[in-house]
Amino acid sequence: MLRPQLNDALKTAMRAKDTRTLSTVRLILAALKDRDIAARPKGIPDGIGDDEIRQMLQSMIKQRRESITLYEQGGRLELAQQEAEEIAVIEGFLPRQMGEAEMVEAVKAIIADTGAGGIKDMGKVMAALKERHVGVMDFTKASALVKTQLGG
Hints:
Elements: H1 2-16, H2 19-39, H3 50-73, H4 77-91, H5 100-114, H6 122-132, H7 139-149
Helix pairs in contact: 1-2, 2-4, 3-4, 5-6, 5-7, 6-7
């Protein structure tokens, strides 16, 4: 589902001469090709699935957010702006992200489902969150919420 969407976005960006979108989609496709090649020895000849693609996109966004922080600290605002534009393009391929209130509700539901009683159960809760909410939840924020809920 995501592969055709990425290829269509590449073609559209080429026709529109949208250099930022074009370069960002090319970066995504290159990373996707690397992941596909790495998956072949694991018995996945057709490439990674949409869930793994979404995780890859999430990690690309995380990398860019970290870069923005570093560029801003270094006074390189034009590079920070470029990274922010890339984030906007990448987010266009992801489903709508959960808001803070939705994340709190999801964390509470998982804690109740897993019967987690303390901070020692954090790994179990995070694994369940990643299983159920891949691609729609910021797991860095979710980790902090889980710690708070479990009394850590």
